[in-house]
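Obj: model holo form, ligand = PMT.
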Amino acid sequence: MLPLHAKRIVLGVTGSIACYKAADLASKLTQLGAEVDVILTAAAEHFIKPLTFQSVTGRRAYIDQDLWGPEGHVLHVKLGKDADLLLIAPATANTLAKLAAGQADNLLTLTALAATAPLMLAPAMDGGMFDHPATQASLETLRAHGAQVHGPVSGHLASGLSGVGRMLEPAELAGHARVALSAGGPLAGRRVLVTAGGTQEPIDPVRVIANRSSGKQGYALAQAALDLGAQVTLVSGPTALIAPVGAHLLRVQTAVEMRDAVLALAAAADMLLMAAAVADFRPSQAADKKIKRAEGVPTVELAANPDILKEVSQQAQKPRVLVGFAAESNDLLANAQGKLASKGLDMIVANDVSAQDAGFEVDTNRVILLSKDGGQEELPLLSKYEVARKVLEKAASLLK
Ligand code: PMT
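Output (holo structure tokens):
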């Protein structure tokens, strides 16, 4: 199931050049499964056409003229009452001022007054307009009324100047919408700790022992936990991935750093999911200068790294549910069963990493969920997000 399945979002689009980004935002929200009803103000229509939004949402996009259309003068009430979220992106200084004053002179501002759903605003304007005391006062009033304000951010502005005024990027706004719409989910109020990526163990200042983990499976777990309403901390090894909006990200490099971060956070967590590929060994002594080729082939002596999961499971105060992953290239079930028992876990995700379409780096995965009570569930080939949802749903059932 898509994360925003059956969620209704009214996307208000007001007159700013950032309107072109609103089309991308509407598309992203639709792809996440939301039903997106777009309302354009008259000024927005100068920048972009309703047809653009209709094409990406597959739904009618509304303009002011519709206020006097066949629905009679109640369209705004229906749109407002049906919405799970009212997101206005871009939100101009003019619309912010109207909303703060409770003015309702067009379809969007009327809908905002009629809506009972949370209001999320993504301001976009020139830097000077944003800094103006009138705009700041509008935002203060709207925040006091419970609105969430995201952005604007600093950068190049349409005026040619640089400053704070750019609308937040659509991907980030979609992330904020996702967090807002997950409130009250099955993991609401729960703290979920996730590890992701591979650790790197320095040999010298430029070389490391690393592995093929991209972090994709762990980041998908963090996103799935957020989608179920959890508070998420993501402890990540080095990766180029962007953390999901709403997750608290802690970056680490080595297994020892990951162990320290996890141990510091585990006592307060309800659930720990370790998807990280932690190096079992590290060079016992990293050279402090780059090892020179001319000095001949070096011998690198290794020392054992701590077993993080095992250490957590031996703590007096630990998460109620401990989930490990077992990356195996042979004897998948036997090896995974062994790790489930030896590491004191509630569940292990047995991951055959020998297949081309599963395990490291790829976007899909094929796993078997094994639980300590002997339960075994084999999943088909799924996206890493779908795998994460299944793992989280199973782990959530163990919390009960
Ligand atoms: O990141 P991707 O490219 O998306 O790839 C995903 C993945 C293949 C890395 C992931 O699905 C996966 O299988 N992660 C576990 C990798 C691993 O290190 O497995 P392991 O069998 O060596 O370890 C078993 C469990 O103990 C793991 O949960 C691991 O995080 C944990 N562990 C391992 C070593 C160690 N020193 N301390 C640990 O806590």
